[in-house]
Amino acid sequence: MSLTRLCVLVVGYVWPEPRSSAAGGHMMQLLGSFLSAGWQVTFASPATLGEHKADLAELGIAECAITLNDSSFDVFVEELAPNVVLFDRFMMEEQFGWRVAKHCPQALRVLETCDLHGLRDARQQLLKARLKAPDASDDFSDLFSAALDGVYPAMAAADVTLREIAALYRCDLNLMISDVELQLLVQQFGVPASLLHWCPLMLDARPRPSPDFAERAHFLSIGNFRHEPNWDAVLWLKNSIWPLIRQQLPEAQLHIYGAYTPPKATALHNARQGFHVLGWADDALEVMAQARVNLAPLRFGAGIKGKLADAMLCGTPSVTTPIGAEAMHGALPWPGAVARSASALAEAAVALYCDESRWQQARTQAQQVLASRYDIDLHSAALVARIETLLPRLAEHRLQNFTGAMLQHHQHKSTQYMAQWIEAKNRAAKNARPQG
Questions:
Q1: Which of 15, 272, 328, 371 has minimal CB crowding within 10 Å?
Q2: Of the candidates 65, 60, 56, 63, which has an alpha carbon nearest to the alpha carbon of residue 27?
Q3: 39 Cβ contact partners less than 8 Å away, ≥ 6 residues apart
């Protein structure tokens, strides 16, 4: 089989919106890697079109709307006959993976995990319990442990984790944006390393001009409001962190941007307090480059954070938590500050905002992290090479993954019966409608 002109089908959870979320940006980076390799790419999704959807057709990517629980997908995938099928998040593998396995068994099945949903969910539940505790303080050191084995019991008991790990096994290759989560899967869950591939954000790490310390003003926080960790961070800023910053910097301003801003977020806007909820930013990098300090006080979450990578690209120091910085900088110094309590975050933010030498040092460290961990050419080539290496030995690769084959078998049977029942029910309902 020639690998010079592969056909790739991407089954998207949503249509990519690179200006709305890091997940949308990473999907566009993956698509760009496939196009650069000279491969033919089709993007299909059952989602409705978002208002900030990327123009895939302009890039030469075919678009196709598909339907959940509909056998028309079987005909579609048989006719397309892709060499590679990439599922965008495990929910799409659950819905369409068994159909691909049945009607296009020769295709390499790849899962873009985005982040570990089970890890994010477990951390959110731990945070909720922590906030309900009668003696709850504003120091979250106990939740920010670097050792993920502490969160394993909460993950292992959750339905979302069981579903997610099963999907990982059913796929031939799983793309992990976080090397910390990759280690968690191998060391705690026993997932074979042969099924995993580290594929972080892929960025143009070359230095770019941006305003210097004296040309910048204000604090910034940015993130899609549909992503629950971002909303929680805004609430923590509003209620705890920002008042402490304003005590020391009475004229300070915080500009909060994010796609899909809900009324509950705009209700927090208070110009007198310097707390400005500004909604959608037409150019996230532009507003990031104008800010002096980026605030990302994430109390739960998973994966790696696009807002923090954007800050590095713009030379903007970031103040965040251990969860925000997790898997972002490896063994290199963090370009800004990492803290575990509201008071420590506020203190670090004020210090960076006022101390030009500290600010300049963080800016230099950001460039070092970008060059070391996010080089687009390096990671794009590694991904293409991994796929091209696996395709000729796919049968052997699957033979070494008996657990995946077993889960694939049982999913196929149970999902097939459910799909047949749904289709029969729909036909009966249609035939029962009055004619005329």
A1: 272
A2: 56
A3: 5, 6, 7, 8, 84
Residues 257, 234 contacting (CB under 8 angstroms): no
Which residues in the chain are classed under CATH 3.40.50.2000? 7-202+377-428, 213-374
- Per CATH, domain 213-374 is 3.30.300.30: no
- State how far the Cα of 411 lies from the Cα of 9, in Å rounded to an integer: 21
Q: Give pLDDT tens digits for 279-305.
A: 999 999 999 999 999 999 999 999 999
Radius of gyration of the chain from its Cα atoms, rounded to whole angstroms: 23
Q: How far apart are CA 77 and CA 99, in angstroms?
A: 8
For tokens 């080089």, the residue is 375
For 178, half-sphere exposure in the C-beta direction (CA atoms, 13 angstrom radius) is 28
What is d(CA 401, CA 70) in angstroms, rounded to the nearest whole number? 29
Sign of the alpha-carbon dihedral angle for 183, 120, 318, 114: positive
Tokens of 67: 């339907």
With 0.90 as the threshold, say if the pTM is over it: yes
Kindly report, residue by residue over 124-136, the tens digit of the pLDDT: 999 999 898 877 6
pLDDT digits (tens, 9 = 90+) for 414-432: 666 666 777 777 777 777 7
